[in-house]
Amino acid sequence: MVGITETVLRDGHQSLIATRMRTRHMLPAAERLDAIGYRSLEVWGGATFDVCLRYLHEDPWERLRQLKKAMPRTPLQMLLRGQNLVGYRHYADDVVRAFVAEAARQGVDIFRVFDALNDPQNMAVALQAVKKAGGRAQATICYTTSPVHTLDSFVELGHRLAEMGADELCVKDMGGFMPPHEGSELVRALVQKVGLPVVVHTHSSSGMSGMTCLAVVEAGAAAIDTALSPFAGGASQPPTEALVGAMRGTAADPHLDLGALAELSDYFRGVLEHYRPLLNLRSLQTDPGILTHQVPGGMLSNLLSQLREQDALGRLAEVIAEVPRVRADLGYPPLVTPTSQIVGVQAVFNVLVGRRYGEITREVRDYVRGLYGTPPGPIDPELRQRVTAEAPAISGRPADLLAPELDRMLTEVRALVPQADVAEALSYALFPAVYRSYRESADRGLTPDVLTSIALGVVGALRAPRPAPAAPPRATSAWSQAGRTHLGTQRGWVDAHHARARR
Fold this sequence. Notes:
The protein is α/β, with parallel strands linked by helices. The protein contains 22 helices and eight strands. It has helices spanning 11-17, 23-36, 48-56, 60-70, 93-106, 124-133, 151-163, 180-193, 209-218, 240-247, 258-274, 290-293, 297-309, 316-329, 339-353, 362-368, 381-388, 406-416, 422-430, 432-443, 448-456, 476-502; strands spanning 3-6, 40-45, 76-80, 110-113, 136-142, 168-173, 198-202, 223-226.
């Protein structure tokens, strides 16, 4: 039997609607999600922490507490960017340890820990902290292809992560271009040679994810990631219902109730309608081009945004062609946050400036100097020489250069909020400016709905009444009707707003 990790409450909506699903739209489905029998529910981490504070004006810690209370039976899971936690830079070890301990205390059971460079030294402290907190440490191998990424190198990395205390491994195919036969070969090798359970995470971008999931299950994967169908496909994961149906009656049958999954999908279909103004149709499309350029959907969106700002959308093909060249110059990093942004922005500069590395971004300079960790392969010698002539490269673990910062952050945040606890200090430590804005908005009594609507430029489009409570466990049809009624009311509110606007 294979396990299913459901991503609708994290990566599903992060991939399709820029992580904008509110906690109040999650809670009506919580009881049903908890009753399905999933291996785990991915509910936190990745971009959710930043977006909660920056755009939704919600407390991410409160979201975690509410979801844990509503779903006590199913293990809750988060995505943790190693030494970057849920931010975009390396944080000091004391902040990493405190964050993991607090997340475990407030409800995270499984920590999927990854590093954009697959650098074990950037995952070590986080993995140790997970073990100390009593969580399950799921250490991650970011899948990519290049001259330096081989089956042997991935297996070697798996051994390193096992030695560091990993309870299980995750193969993270963030671009959705892992072919079924390679996924099968990799999973089989990891299971047989490393000896830990292997979970596979993929995206539907290239159209291969469903086939790859079935192949890795046959090869011995312990679990796969899927998303309920309204938030599946395209840049998201393959649909839960389709894969559960495909495996029904086989040795891998996850034994999940397709009828109950259909009820959940009915609810989330209404949720998606509520957020439709945020849905980028490109994110739903299949893009086989990713098989050659390896540009994930989120990275492509960023490239389009940058080119649009420069009135240079017509040069997208040049930028796409430049991305693999920049990636090779930087030692073939996997394209995932933050390396996807580092490579993508430099590729845009190279094309628009008209001369390769005519202008080198600060992030590329830091990367070349080793401040992000050890690249998978050698960096272009000319580029390295140019960068290190201005500032020397470092050796060793980047976080070793960082002084402890948690006590200072606690002092600073208490100047804003006298009764602030460790969780507040961590929010401030990760995103100081965003946290200040969040607190100032709360102090002025501005509601999250109004603030988000203003930020989106569609006043009222995301306002809604309080969600209907989840139905009793056995009242399937009533629960489904409550979901439809609730979202129908929301759509009616939006229609009324637009009618007023036209007047």
